[in-house]
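To assess whether ligand presence alters the predicted conformation, the chain was also submitted together with FE2/S2 (inorganic) cluster. Input:
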Amino acid sequence: MQLLLTINNEIKSFDIAPNETLLRVLRRNGYFGVKHGCENGECGACAVLLDKKPVASCVMLAAQAEGKNITTIEAMGEVEEQGWRKTEGLHPLQKAFVEFGAIQCGYCTPAMILAAQALLEKTSHPTEAQVRDALSGVLCRCTGYLKPVQAVLYAVGDQGSGIGSGIPVPIENFQPREELPPSDFPLSDPRSLISTLPKMIVAPAVPEMTVVGKPEKKVDAVKLVQGNPAFADDIEMRGMLYAKVLWSPVAHARIKHIDATKARALEGVHAVLTHKDIPRVVYSTAGQSDPIPGPLDMFSLDTKVRFVGDRVAFVAAESEEIAERALELIEVEYDELPAILDPRDAMKPDAPRLHDEPEYVPFGECDPQKNIAAKIEFELGNVEEGFKKSDFVFEDEYIVPKVQQASIEPHIVVTYWDEDDRLVIRTSTQVPFHARRILAPVLNLPPKRIRVIKPRIGGGFGGKQEVLTEDVAAHLTIATGRPVRFEYTREEEFIAARSRHPMRVRVKTGVMKDGAMIANEMYALSDTGAYGCHALTVTGNTGQKCMGLYNAPNIKFHAHVVYTNTPSSGAFRGYGVPQGFFPLEVHMEKIARALNLDPLQFRLMNAVKVGDELPTSKAWSEGRAPHPEIIETCGLPECVEQGARAIGWKRDNRQQTTDDRWRVVPGKSHLRRGQGVACVMQGTAIPYLDMGGASIKINDDGSFNLLVGATDLGTGSDTVLAQLAAEILGCPIDDILVYSSDTDFTPFDKGAYASSTTYISGGAVVKAAEQVAEQIKKVAARMLNEEGEKQKAESEKRNTQYNIRAEELILRGKKVFAPDGRFVTLAQVALNSLHHTDQHQIMAVASFVSPKSPPPFAAQFAQVLVDTVTGQITVEKLVMAVDSGVIVNPATASGQIEGGMTQALGYAVCEEMLYDAKGDSVIRQLGDYKIFAADEMPELQTIFVETFEPSHPFGLKAVAEIPLDGVAPAVANAVYDAVGLWMDEIPMTPERVWRRLHENKNKNK
Ligand code: FES
Ligand code: FES
């Protein structure tokens, strides 16, 4: 049917299907700033303004918008100079989002800006609460909302505090929180959230730099605030087909019979593929370096299904609706098998076996006959002897749940044959190079006939370190010869994508009376679900990172990672470490309480220190030979000190505070307040394995192209890499044009995981930039000497130094300076080398692999309010003081901490994937799953305690994963502090807390 719609004040005619949503029609017609994140109005990514009010375009028929004025982000503003055409520039809200670092992946950004704009239509000077309320309809999985809220408040101008005028001013003009008047309790004035930068404690060893260490704007921010077509799905292909997958309705079965005849006969269907139609190639979906450290136990389509949501058949059709109808026409007969839903059952001798396929390729100590995907064990010293020598031994079991990455952009891929019959895979992936390597045998194509393009990614958090959707679209492109688009619905994200490994963890610790730790043992029973993706490495990391923090003479970690008939676990930011630190740090708190030790001092006295050998580095390294490592930087004591000060730490077990008024809320005796702490550690990349490459070339205006295979998931890594290059090349970050990543054009990089991009890919960028700088200096020295010769010829009297050596030149401010102050510009050097003399391209390629994995450290503090009647925990404030080495960009790095703490808060109090007795997912939508919205957030504070890590030229360590590690134990310890209740299982939902409170009451009766 024909429909007239008014979009951004233009009336346009569209040919639409009567049931088409407004979202579909807008995107189909090139309004790519409107994003898809779900299908039921819960994420807000699809927001547009309808007569100035925000609406979810995914739940509205296009026809319902007739006669209304639709505003999309495309109408808000654009870059000021578009060649000869001048524009009004970006809207103040867009500018503020850019200036304040309010963007990470940017997938939610257009919707946030529109939501803020709608608020401003109603009130010109909103309060922070109003801003949070307005943004609460748009879920963001990256930022923790602090910077978006700051950006909106700033953009509108705050008459009260005198900050802001609607025209953004440089970020440096804002006071960091530390300079605000101190406040004890109640929590500080909400206006104090108007701070942009974290508190920085700078170590004396950190040199002053020009670009590094500065809160530079993200290099991709301007395109993201405009909603430019930057993501995998923002592309129109002629003749595109739409893929759908038939998912298994049963948890464990053999496919007895499958018949796709009727589906194939449906008009508009171009291909239906079952296990009979494609090659049977065993592989692993885990995007890891070769050889993948885990079993090969999966097929694109198999004769057996192993969980509700496993793949049964693929369809490609001219529309999603036709593809869905075709799925209904596929006839399948299942021969059901007993299912294992509890990992404890998987290890029973008579347990049904999930993997009996002859093609199964084991790795390490996996044993599919016993449903064991991986077995891990290492011991330093002798823990049993250690327990005997200890004055006290504490032992307990803890449970951590299965949770989802829930990036707002779902998995999305578009595949097509190019003009050279090469298969192009445009995909939202964290691992483009691993994806190409893994897919080649599965598709029966040599890697050289596959090109993987990674555009911007709308969040990944490990979920896109998996090759999950690419083979589906690729098989269908091979079958049909047509471009194919395949995107998970939100429900499919919950039933078929990966998640964090749930675990049952036992911790046993022997200590002396003074708190000295003698022996520390952890056992983890980890559930990998139906396939063993990341089984060994995630759970090994649980032991390697968590058990490395405390330097007991006797340490043991052992684990079984077992198959169950549930959706597969996989990589999730933190990669096994949050699962270990919840048990460990609650356990430490119990010991400190039981022995009446100061919880901070108890932790610090046992924690590793500078000069120590990292104990677990001697024992384990991702299933490969371990590489013992000395700790060269550790800011943990300062982190503890700073964090305690920031939260207003009230506790010292030895000197109980007499004034407990802070614990109560006047007139509400059922509310109790408490504070908790956790210390944590992560790693920085995988030593002797992770490799990143970078290439840099100069352009004839003196700008540079930086090509990296590294994968910016929204973390800001492209920006940070550009800063490193700009620092060395003596230019502003705007002159570094970053392109990432494309397996045809960018150098290899292992991808974005293991907190390694800044360190590993950054190492490659530094090496390439240094080589380019050397080449520039050579040309500049020749130019300056030639100029000197000329001057000499003109005037014999001038006292000019003619023999300048390249090594003595300095690159700064887009110029190359000689010691005598003479200079040539980078543009002159580029023009000279490209066009005039001794012509050549100044360029370099370099790669970096690290022999070390220097750990970042952090202290995490939480303050909570517990409702003893309902069991509701309200987290009032989270503080994280972290030693991540030198911070390249305080704005993007603090954004990582804020967003990470927010994800970790969900892990602590509300996120959990639940299954019924048949293994069917109970949680299928974001609304059921529950991630934090802007109006539900606690106060967040980040403090960076800088150290200069000598293993990296710029002194860096990782920042991205560590914020996931300490929130849950800090909150649990705060709950104990408030109400005397040990929560040994997360998430600490009101129901779970309420039950435990009542168990306690009944016990005490
Ligand atoms: S609310 Fe419309 S895409 Fe999620
Ligand atoms: S920046 Fe909000 S979802 Fe990524």
